[in-house]
C-alpha cells in the first residue's frame, strides 16, 4: 500500500488549512437544522396548528419544487426534515466540492502539491487526504445534526437519519469533485463542473417532486436525503444509494489518477498560435480571453436549464387536476395559470441566485488574477488599474445580464410553445428573468468593493450570498423579522410573472451596485497590489 | 549625466514587519546597476514600489523623472519589467503573451522578437501551463528585451535559466547597455553581476549598506598576504588595517584592508621580502561580508 504513504500527514495538513472553513460550513448546516426546528416549535406548538400548516401546503407544486416532497407535515420532525433536507444537502455538497478541489487540483495548479510530492508521499495520498477529510466532515455533520435535533426533543431515529442524509450528500459530491479534479486541468473548471452537477441534481428533484416524474427525484443525490423520509417512517436502505455511488466515484477517481501525470489532465494540451491574434490587444482583449470559456459554458448550462424549466412548467398544474382535494388547492392558488406563474416565479428566483453565483465568480476573477501574480505583468505594461479592473467588471456585469436574458428567453420559449401562447408568455417569463439582474449585480458590486478595500476577505462575498440564499429560502416560513429579510436584495425583486412590477426597488439596487463598485474601483487604485 | 532612478530614505512596512527602512538608490541613465542583498533584504519590495505596485510609507522615489505611484501608466510605457517568478496565463501561448505585453506597452520590435526567440531557443506555441520554469522566465525576458523600453527592471531574471541560456542573457544585456538602455538588475548570481554591472548597490534589512563600482567596493575589503621575510618582522600589529596577524619566525600571514595595502607592503620590504603571495578579495568574500551582520572594527 505504498501509494498511500503520507496520507495521515497530508490529512492533518488539510484539516489544519480547512479548520476555519469546515467548522463554519458545519456550523451553518447544523444551525440551519436546529434553528428551523426551534422556530417551528415556537410557531406551531399545537397539533392543530401543524395540521393547518400541513393542509395549507400539501400538494402545492411551488413548495414541492423549492423544498421537497411532503411526507409528514404534522410533526415537528417531519416539518423540519421537509424544510431543510434539500438546502442542507445542497450546502453539504458545496462544502465537499470546494474542499476537495482546493486540496487536489488547485494545489496541483499552484505547485503546492509538487512541493509535497517530493517528500515521502504516495501517489494516491494527495487524493485520499481531502477525501478522508470530507468523509470525516460528513460523519461529524451527521453526529452534530443528529445529536442536536435529538437534544431538542425530536425522535433520535429521524434526527440521525436526516444527519446521515446530509453526510451522504457530502460524500457523493466530495467523490464527484475528486473525479472532476482529475478530468480538468484548472481548479476553476473542476469546481465549476462539480458545482454545476450539484445545482443540476437539485433541479432534477425539484422537477421530479413537483411534476410527478418521480424517477427524477430518485436519481438525484439531493433527492436521496429527502427520500430517507426522516421522522416519517424512515427508509434506512435509501442511505445505501449515496454509499454505493460514493464508492464507485472514488474508484473512478483512483483509476484516473493512476493514468495521468502530476499537473496534467487526461487530455494533452495542444500547442497554440505563435502570434497573438488581432483581438488579443489591450487589457480588455485579455479579459475577454480569460472570461470567454467560462461565460460560454455558463451560457450553455443556463440555456438547458431554461428550456427544461420552461418545458415542464405546464405539468405543474396537470398534477393538481388529478384529485378533488388538489383541485381545490388549484383553485385557491388562482387556477392553473396562477399556479404555473407561481412556479415560474419561484424557479426564476433560483435562476437569479444562479446569476449571482456567476456575478460573484466573475468579479472575483480579478482578485484571482492578482493573487496568482498575473495582474503584475499587465499593470506594469502601461495599463491603468481602473482600466484593468474595469475590464473584468464589464464581463461580470455584462455577463450576468446576458445570462439572465438568455435563460429568460429559453425558459419563455419552451414554456410559451408548450402553453401554445409564445407571443404572450415569452415576454412575461423574460421579464421575470430580467428583474433578477439588479439583485445579482448587488453581489457583483459587493465582490468588487471587497476586492478594492478588503482584498484578503473577498471570500465574504460568497458567505453573504449563502446568507441571502438562506434568508430567501427560510425567512418567510420561519417568520424572521422583516428588516432582516430586507437586507437581501432578492427579497425586493418583483415576483414575476404573476406578481406586481415595481421599478423602485430595482433602481435602488442599481444605485447600491454603483456605489459598491465605485468604492471597489477607488479602493483598488489606492492600495498595494499583491 | 541624468538619473533614471533616484530613491532616498524610502520606507515601507507590511503590518509590523519593516521591509524598507530608509533605503537609498541612484541609477544613472545608461548604466547597468546591480542590486544586491541577502534574501528578504527588500530588493523586490523596492522594485515593486518603483513599479507603482506598492505605495511607499515615506521617503522619495523618482523614476524616469516622474512619480512612480501617480504617473505609473505613463512611465510604464518607457520601461519593461521581468519578475523572478513568472506566472503565465494557462491558456495563452508564450507567443501570445509576448505580443500582448508588447501591444500593451505600445510596440514591439518584430525583428528583435524573432531573433530573441531563436537565441533563447523558446517555442512560442506552447501553452502557459506547459512551460517549464526556465521557459516561463524566457517568455518574460523576450517580451522585455524586444520592447523599445528605455529602462529595464529585472528582478532575478535568470532564476531557472540553464548556464547556456544564462550566457545568452548576459550577451543580450550587454547589447542593451551598448544600445544605451538603463538596466536595474537584482541578482544573487555574482558572476553575472561582475560581468554586467557598472555599479552596484548592496542592501541589507531595508537599508543601503554600500554603493559604488566593483573596483571601489573591492577597495573596501581585505587582501590576504603570505610573505617569507629576511628577518623576523616587528611593528606589524601596530599598523592600521592589519588583521589576523600570524608570525612564525620569518614567515608572516596577515589580512589587510585593501585601502591600507600600500603601507603594509612598505613595512614588509623593510625586512627583505624573499617570497610573497597575495590574494585579492573574491567577489564572494566581498558580498558575504556585507550580507552578514559582522561589522568591521
Ligand atoms: N506582501 C508582503 N506582506 C508582508 N511582508 C512582505 C510582503 N512582501 C515582502 N514582505 C517582507 O518584506 C521583506 C523584504 O522582502 P523582499 O521580497 O523585498 O526581499 P528580497 O530582497 O527581494 O529577497 P529575495 O532575495 O529573497 O528575493 C521580507 O522580510 C518579506 O518577508
Ligand atoms: Mg526578491
From TrEMBL, chain A:
Keyword match Membrane: yes
* Keywords for the protein's UniProt record, in alphabetical order: Membrane, Transmembrane, Transmembrane helix
Superkingdom, natural source: Bacteria
Residue ranges of the TM segments: 22-44, 80-101, 131-151, 157-177, 189-208, 236-257, 295-313, 342-360, 393-417, 429-453, 460-481, 501-524
Protein name from the UniProt record: ABC-2 type transport system permease protein
The species is Kutzneria viridogrisea
From TrEMBL, chain B:
Ranges for domain ABC transporter come to 5-230
Topological category with respect to the lipid bilayer: Peripheral membrane protein
Q: Name one GO molecular function term.
A: ATP binding
Location within or outside the cell: Cell membrane
Q: Give the UniProt record's GO annotations in the biological process aspect.
A: response to antibiotic
Record Gene3D superfamilies = P-loop containing nucleotide triphosphate hydrolases
Which InterPro entries would you find in this protein's record? AAA+_ATPase (IPR003593), ABC_transporter-like_ATP-bd (IPR003439), ABC_transporter-like_CS (IPR017871), ABC_transporter_ATP-binding (IPR050763), DrrA1/2-like_C (IPR025302), P-loop_NTPase (IPR027417)
Q: What is its main location?
A: membrane
- Keyword Transport among UniProt keywords: yes
Gene Ontology cellular-component annotations? plasma membrane
Keywords attached to this entry: Antibiotic resistance, ATP-binding, Nucleotide-binding, Transport
Query: One Pfam family from the UniProt entry?
Result: ABC_tran
Q: Which family does it belong to?
A: Belongs to the ABC transporter superfamily.
Record's protein name: ABC transporter related protein
